[in-house]
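Objective 1.3, modelling of assemblies. Example input:
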Amino acid sequence: MSSLVARRRHPAAIAIVLLLGLILTGGLYAAFAPKDADAAATSSQAVAAGHKLFLSNCATCHGVNATGTDAAPSLVGVGAAAVDFQVGTGRMPLANPGVQAERGKVQFNSTEISQLSAYVASLGTGPSIPSSSLTSGGGDIAKGGELFRVNCAMCHNFAGSGGALTRGKFAPNLMDVSGRHIYEAMLTGPQSMPVFNNSNLSPQDKKDIISFLMNVKTEASPGGWSMGNLGPVTEGLFAWTIGIGMLIFIAVWLGKKAA
Amino acid sequence: MTDDNDASIPKEPAVSHDESGRAVATRDGEHALPERFENPGLPPHVHRQGDHDEAAAKRSERQVAALFTISMLATVLFVVAYAMIGKDDDVTLPILGKVHALNVALGVTLAFSLLGIGLGAIHWAKTLMSDEEVVEERHTLRSDDEARAGAIKVLTDGAESAQINRRPLIKYTLGGALGLFAIPLGLQLVGGLGPFKGDVNDLRTTLWDTGVPVLGANGKPEMKNGKVVTRPRRLMRDPEGTAIRLSDVTLGSVFHVLPEGINNTPEPSNEKVKAAVILISLQENKIKSARERDWGLDGVVAFSKICTHVGCSVGLYEQTTHHLLCPCHQSTFDVTEDCKVIFGPAKRPLPQLKIEVDDDGYLYAPHGFEQPVGPSFWERG
Amino acid sequence: MSEQTKARSTADALRTDDKTDSPAGDGGPVGAIANWVDERTGAAKGVRFLLKKVFPDHWSFMLGEIAMYSLVILLISGTFLTFWFVPSMGETTYTGSYVPLKGVDMSQAFASTVKISMDVKGGLLIRQIHHWSALIFVVSIALHMFRVFFTGAFRKPREINWIIGLLLAMLAMVEGFIGYSLPDDLLSGTGIRAMQGFILSIPIIGTYISYILFGGGFPGQDIIPRFFTIHVLLLPAVLVGLFTAHIILVMVHKHTQYPGPGRTNKNVVGFPMMPVYAAKAGGFFFVVFGITALIAGLVSINPIWMYGPYEPTMITAGSQPDWYMGFADGALRLLPGFLEFNLFGKTWSFNVMIGAILMIPILWTVMGLYPFIEKWVTGDNEEHHLLDRPRNRPTRTGLGMAAITFYGILFAACGNDIIAIKFHLSIDDITETFRVALIVAPIVVFWVVKRLCLSLQRYDRDLVLHGRESGRLVRTSKGRFFEAHEALGDYDRWRLVSFDSPEPIGLPPATDEHGVRRKGARKDRLRARLSHYYFKDRVEPVTPMELAAAHHDGHAAEAIESHPDEAESGHMHGGAEEIGAAHAYGHPTPHDKQD
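Predicted structure (tokens):
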């Protein structure tokens, strides 16, 4: 009997077999799984692929020709930027009908998103996806802050922590949104958000605003725990619960008889 | 069963019902029961461990001393932190996130420096100082009659000596003088604090009511008949101050607007708080009010940005519902219907600013608002 | 003797009483100093008097102390801040170290506050201590006020102190509002703008007051310097003065105490100032300061550099005042717009006036009058130094909780947009719900709390009459099981039976003995009605007679009523009718003698 066969009833045998099985399956999958399509595909290829994706995932609401139905608006002229934003943040395809489409799980990979964008862009001229030089920060943070406070803070709050709109709608927290998506949102005005075209907020202005928001995210909170930067409401809550709670705790201890 | 005459049997109380139906016993054995329970007096004193066990007391002493020592150490650490940590040094801590190290260090060391003393003193009092309760008697606050009579006597004797009751002239003129002397002080203060006439005209006008001087070729204002020639003010972006073209305003846009030349006024902030305007572009066929359409341009309309409730900036435009929301108290205005109030505590709609486009394509306001902007006031009418 | 000598000796004779002989003490250096001071001030009498004072011990008495110490901390930290803060609205361009504000135009007030926060070592800590202390100050005032109210400590002789306390509370809120407005940042500047809107809504004189206060239109150049004067000079002086009067009255009246064995209306039982209270109360000051410093070191408050300088055209979502002004802001969110109307050519803005101008004076007047109303309703003219347990005053407790509910709803309404985003609700629905709740909830809470108090009182009666369940099960010869109860000891029982349960004041006859209609008969009717409302539902404390009946007669003990009409609602205590009551109650060892 070979030493391997002799050891077949060893307690570790089953574990080793499982491990080998996993390695085999994983390796096979890695070898044979469809790779991401080559991103440098020609644009007509992208448009065609995008069209196919569109028909399967979007046409039910947006119409076969993307001209809109009662359920959803026309996408003619919304531009690649709108698609990149909506699909890239998981807002589209719409998961549940509600007062607004909320950020959610992204259903497509980046190639598919760019294909969809290419398709929609082909329907009519509209805002295009910004270049990364505009969306990676490096702008004038102070200027961006001023612009943010004039144009954005009334909905998104002074630190981009989000704010309430009417009837259950809301302007979301901006801290975990990529620079690119922030740019596209400003440019295309999704849902309740107004449109900030490049004559309103120039590309440099947008870059400054994105830089400001990135700074808010990365900068230290000098005074300590910021509690979400929501203002006096959280501060008052803290004082009424933990603040006075600690003091009353000690007051009770003070009054109790010692052992 | 009770036998009142047999002294050897313990007497049971006679149980009956009082007039309200309650069961009461009028006696408890041989004693008549009092109406109400009596105060049993201070309960017997319970000793603490430290009162009889010297080891426990010594332990307490060490604990108190340790707390005081923590305080001293914390003070030293405060000084060290102050000297060695820079103003801009950051540190990342659990829950707190990235914070300034100096603030945390100084705060925590100061806290322990103080808490050490406080907790030490309290622990000392609790464990080592006498905790036998002490009784202090209260005295009725009311002064005794003798004291009262004495007080009255002093006052009446004094009044008699001052002859105030015999001399009514003195009494009345004193009253008059004392009643009036504060007026000069009050008048100077109130009169000097601000324009006393409550300048209502200021509340009714905004910078949009006036124009800007037309500059001639030499850069100086043109004159005609001895007066400066003015043209209506253009709409400028806030805060850059650049003029807005109609073509810049695409569908769904919101521009935050200030009048041209606002930074050249003596008090720009005072003007901004009245002249701030929000410029909105919506589909013209969505606008229900004819007047609003007429005062706009192809669905581009301008409204006062100052809420008519208490004056916050109404900046939240919801593109899909065409509502303007004020974040302070949630007054909601409907941009399709003259910005009338559809929810919230405001009453009056936002005044609209008529806009036109000049030859160069820039937006301007031919005249100011037709009603006062901002919060209501008494004289508004 | 010459004339001169005679004159001198007469003069000398006149002066013989001028010399004071000072017997030398032997107390060492401390004694020598004490002697020196006492010879010049007579301080020993005061020292003996004060240091012997007795203070009762209960944690709820510390709430007022937290407020007191917070005031001291505010004065200290506030003074520090004045060394760096510039109370000017003059324009400047920021050149400090905080990058997101570089080159931004702002007032000097704002710039100096950013400088304190970023460029002065420890400056941010002092600022945060000051602001956190202000929040805790008003929290502790509120809790202290609740404690005083629910325990009836506002009764004679403390009505004056109640009113002083209310004034202190209001001034503390105003002082806080003005204080956080000083940095002239976007959030507090919006608050000042709203304040100006409130002032404008005042009929006839509103516009005048606004222009006088702001030195012209809003915002002008004067409001921050004027706020600085009020915040640093005027209000602290008034606060300290009123607070001193408040404390002096506490010393004169002596502190109240909770009922308990050995405690009467004519004594104070507790610990003397020296050494126990000096250590405990003095130590507690350090504790309050320490906890405040700890919070200030760890939790950020009012990050004005993130709000940016105040600009009239800017605003942030989530614009709220500090918590203690929240109820007024909440009222403004709930008051509907139709309350503003035009009449006689003038604009009457009740939608703003009711919440912003009228509410605080009205509430404070009602609160100030309450001790006198209650006095009228009970006809009680005695001094009260023993506190009430809240359950023993069901109507008062119910009213207090209803008032707190009313306040609480207004307070919650102020945060309606934060509630909306955190709980994914519609802000319009939240507002409508609060509008309804504001009227309905206090009524419901009053009824529930009052019933709860009455139940608790009945529970106490039950406890006294039937003792505590001892966990000892007894099985009778007939096979029944029941739990033996342990009677309360004298000391435990006293607390439950010592209270008084007032009866409603009856109506005196409408006409006196001559048949003449008595003056004030209508007032008496109102008084009788109010008194009836207060005391119609009452639970009496157990009397010795009832207790004896409960212990010794099993049958009669069953009918324990709290109200004469409830004669049938007694409850049975298993076993009392089967075995001798002496065996069922209070004996720690089982008795084998059974009936």
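Chain C touches chain B through 139 residues (CB under 8 Å).
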